[in-house]
Design goal:
By secondary structure, the protein is of the alpha/beta class. It has one domain (3-186, 220-248, 280-297): NAD(P)-binding Rossmann-like Domain (Rossmann fold, 3-Layer(aba) Sandwich). It contains eleven helices and twelve strands. The strands form three sheets. The protein has a seven-stranded parallel β-sheet, with helices on both faces. A three-stranded mixed β-sheet has the order 7-9-11. The protein starts with 6 loop residues before the first strand and ends in an 11-residue tail after the last helix. Bound molecules: nicotinamide-adenine-dinucleotide. Nicotinamide-adenine-dinucleotide (NAD) binds at residues 11-12, 14-18, 36-38, 61-64, 84-88, 102, 106, 125, 127, 181, 183-184, 194.
C-alpha cells in the first residue's frame, strides 16, 4: 500500500520525530490522525504551514488510557500506526511509575488497539537505550543478535516493549517493526542530552557559542531520515515482530564539529573532552536494510548545511527562539 492511500495514526505527534513524520506524510498525500497528550502544536509548526496544520486531524490522546486508545483507533480506522509517544531517560528516572505507565503500558495499549482493529502496519520507537552500557559489548558494529542489557529504567521499558511486540506476533499475529534510534538531530530536536548535536546547528544559525556536553563516537541520524524509516517500516506491513538497529552515520563528535566549522567557519562550537556517551556507538544496519530494501540516509554534510539554513530561516521569521540552548 502506498502512503497516498493510507490513513496514518501517530502517537506522540507533537514530538520531534512525529513532526517530521507528518512533514513526509503530507508530502505524499496520506490522511493523518495526529494524537498526543499535549495539545499545543509547537514543534510541528516549525515544519508545516498553517494550511497544512489545518489539514491534519488533531486528537488529544493519552496512551496510558487503554479504553481511549482503543476507541481512537476504532473510530478513526487507521491503516497504519506509528507509535512514538514516550518519556525520555530523565523523565523515567524522575518518575519511574509514570515512565512505566507511558512507555510500557502505553505500548501495550497501542498493540491491543492494533490487534482488535485490524491495523495493517505498525512501527514503534524502541531506542539504543535498550542496549545499555558500551562496556558490555564487543568493539565491532553490533547486530540485533547482540542482546539488550539495559542499565536504566528507560532502557528496561524499551526492552519490555520489544518483548511485548514479539508476544503480540506469536499469540495474535500483530506484525510490527521496532526501531532503535540513537542521536536524532534536526529542527524540532530540543530536549535530552543527545539533542546537543541539533542545538549546535541552531547555535551556528544564531551566531552564538555552544558547548556539546560529550565527545567520542556517536551514531547520528537526521530526524527526517528517522521519520521516513518509521513510515516505511509501518508501510512494510511486516509479518513478524522484528526490532532493528539504525546506523546512518557513525562519527566522532570532533568530526561532527569539524564538518560544521568547514561549512560555517564562523561556528563557535566546542565539546567536552573525555566524556563519551554511555552507549555502544557502532551498529550494523543490515537488518533494516533487508527489511525495507532502502533506508533513508541524507549525507551528513548536506544534512548539517540544510539544518543550519532551516534554523536561520525560522529565527529570521521569529518562529523559533534560542532558549533551548540554555536548557
Ligand atoms: N530523539 C531521539 O534521539 C530518540 C532516540 C531514541 C529513541 N527515541 C524514541 O522515539 C520516540 C519519539 O522521540 P521524539 O524525539 O520525537 O520524542 P519527544 O520527546 O520529542 O516526543 C514525545 C512525545 O510523546 C508525547 N507523550 C508523552 N506522554 C504521552 C502520553 N501519556 N500519551 C501520549 N503522548 C505522550 C509528548 O507530549 C511528546 O510530544 C520516543 O519514544 C523516544 O523514546 C528518540
Amino acid at each position: 500500500m502506498s502512503a497516498a492511500n493510507s490513513r496514518f495514526l501517530i502517537t506522540g505527534s507533537m514530538g520531534c520525530i512525529g513532526a517530521w513524520a507528518m512533514r513526509n506524510l503530507l508530502d505524499e498525500g496520506a490522511h493523518i490522525i495526529a494524537t498526543d497528550v499535549d495539545t499545543v502544536v509547537s514543534r510541528p509548526r516549525l515544519l508545516l504551514s498553517d494550511e497544512e496544520i489545518d489539514s491534519i486531524d488533531w486528537q488529544k490522546l493519552d496512551v496510558t488510557d487503554a479504553q481511549a486508545v482503543n476507541a481512537m483507533v476504532a473510530e478513526h480506522n487507521p491503516t497504519h500506526i506509528i507509535h512514538l509517544a514516550g518519556l525520555q531517560i530523565p523523565f523515567c528516572k524522575a518518575d519511574p511509575s509514570m515512565g512505566a505507565m507511558v512507555n510500557v503500558v502505553g505500548t501495550v495499549n497501542v498493540f491491543e488497539a492494533a490487534r482488535h482493529n485490524k491495523v495493517r502496519g505498525l512501527s514503534y520507537a524502541s531506542s539504543v537505550g535498550a542496549l545499555g552500557a558500551a562496556d558490555n559489548y564487543p568493539n565491532r558494529p553490533l547486530t540485533e543478535a547482540d542482546l539488550p542489557l539495559p542499565n536504566n529504567l528507560y532502557g528496561v521499558y524499551k526492552t519490555a516493549n520489544e518483548n511485548t511486540a514479539k508476544v503480540y506476533w506469536q499469540d495474535w499475529q500483530v506484525g510490527s517493526i521496532g526501531l532503535r534510534p540513537y542521536t536524532v538531530f534536526g529542527v524540532c530536536r530540543d530536549q535530552g542530552m543527545t539533542a546537543d548535536i541539533a542545538k549546535a546547528c541552531l547555535a551556528v544559525a544564531a551566531d552564538k557559542p555552544f558547548h556539546i556536553r560529550f565527545d567520542g563516537p556517536i551514531t547520528v541520524q537526521h530526524a527526517n531520515d528517522v521519520a521516513r524509516i518509521f513510515i516505511d517500516s509501518a508501510l512494510a506491513e511486516h509479518q513478524g515482530a522484528d526490532v532493528f538497529n539504525l546506523r546512518n552515520d557513525v562519527i566522532e563528535v570532533a568530526e561532527f564539529v569539524a564538518s560544521l566549522k568547514q561549512l560555517f567557519p564562523e561556528a563557535q562550537i566546542t565539546f567536552e573532552q573525555n566524556n563519551p556517551l554511555p552507549f555502544p556507538a557502532d551498529f550494523d544496519d543490515a537488518g533494516i536494510q533487508a527489511a525495507l530494501g532502502r533506508v533513508a540516509h541524507t549525507p551528513l554534510k548536506q544534512a548539517i548545511q540544510s539544518d543550519v539554513e532551516q534554523f536561520k530561516a525560522l529565527l529570521d521569521a521569529g518562529k523559533l527562539s534560542t532558549d533551548s540552548l540554555n536548557a
